[in-house]
Write a structure and sequence with these properties.
Layout (H helix, E strand, L loop, with lengths): L2 H5 L2 E2 L2 E6 L2 E4 L12 H4 L7 H4 L16 E4 L25 H11 L2 H8 L6 H8 L5 E2 L14 E3 L2 E3 L3 E3 L12 H12 L2 E4 L7 H7 L4 E4 L5 H14 L3 E5 L9 H14 L7 H5 L11 H9 L4 E6 L2 H9 L4 E4 L13 H11 L1 H5 L4 E5 L5 H9 L4 E4 L1 H10 L1 H22 L12 E2 L1 H5 L3 H11 L1
Parallel strand pairs: 8-9, 8-15, 9-10, 10-11, 11-12, 12-13, 13-14, 14-15
Antiparallel strand pairs: 1-2, 2-3, 3-4, 5-16, 6-7
Amino acid sequence: MLAEEVARHNKRDDLWVILYGQAWDLSTFVENHPGGVASILRYAGLDATEAFDPVHPPGILATLDPGLRKGDVEGSTLTVKPRDTNSDVLPLDAILNLDDFEANAQKSVSPRAWAYFSSAADTEWTHINNRVAYEKLLFRPRVLRDVRKIDLSVQLLGYKSTLPVYTAPAATARLSHPDGEVAIAKACGSHGVFQCLSQHASCTLEQVAQARTPAFYQLYCLRSDDDTKSKIRQALRAGFASIWVTVDTASNGTRTRDERNKNIEAMRTGNVNTVSQATANATNHTCRTAWEDLTWIMREARGLPVVLKGIQSVEDALLARKAGCRGICISNHGGRNLEFSQPSIYVLYEVFKYAPDLIRAEDFDIFVDGGIRHGTDVIKALCLGATAVGIGRSPLYALASYGQAGVEKMFEILKQECESVMRLIGCDSVRKLGPHYLNMRALDREIDHQGIKNGIKSML
């Protein structure tokens, strides 16, 4: 058939699109699309291949009803645009730190991808201060220690990791590079570290599990409990080792740069149905999840450790322990949801100061993400009692220009930086780290001690 025939089917109840040179009738599927109606409607009667490919797993069309395929489209040559090679991108050997990866990534990905990966809520105060807050912690080094051998290994939920670092969940990695989350998984496997996979990954759970087992799975609770249960069961079948329930996304924040990119695209194309990537991902999330829902979530997890991702106060950290969770991830979603939420390191300090039993518990892990770019950040967090730290944007930036090799280089840099810090503070094992290696006075002044005491008292 001709592309002109496809173009005539451009309404919600009569909706065809072209994908990889074939016409598909999505009129009945569009209402059940996990990414919402608008993200399909914007391409009604058009070739959607370029937009579709980086945010969907390879082979996903095979899961659709074959009857929806209407046939080959004559003269349709658009498949997937090859990646541009940018001469301004540094050679991988010239990358010195994780900030270098970010600078190169902006030159390597599309404006749409850059807006989605790098943006944060509103004025981005929280995103910025996630990083700045680490500057309020200073080191108190000890000298004349034997630090020839440094042990950075830790136990994460009962599994050994060679580094106290894991890749935090970040959606649609194929917007960064065609190999997406699979490349991140392979890099994690090569370095003996862990990946926490986003529910909105652009590769399937099975593809990631084949590349790196075990891994952790990030869960969003959906409008239908049955759909949420289905996601958990899928993770179980694929062999994932824990379920990380996201609890900080009752609503999406306004990610201004992502929304602005959407508006620019709408003006360029004249398509009023354009939606931002963040909006498309969150279409099916629910805002009614409560503490009592953890009972059935843990039951569905069938013994797998359950971690609450998005804890932002010591009170909720205590409630997570009481609810039977195996751990928490202190996180403000990389500053992407609630503007003017506390930097993550503030909340870790709250837990350190007012819930020391959680820090000491051998069966309760404390993870933290947000603002971590250097080995100094990693070691500071561990001194305050973190089990390990998560990095979310940096793997995507490393992936963008260099693929799997970039992510592996990122781990090598973090390892070298962490070893250097450990030697300079006079400590040979992360298990020996503690607050005695830090000057915490500046951070302590930022904490609302009376408010925290009142909050804990109200729980009694």
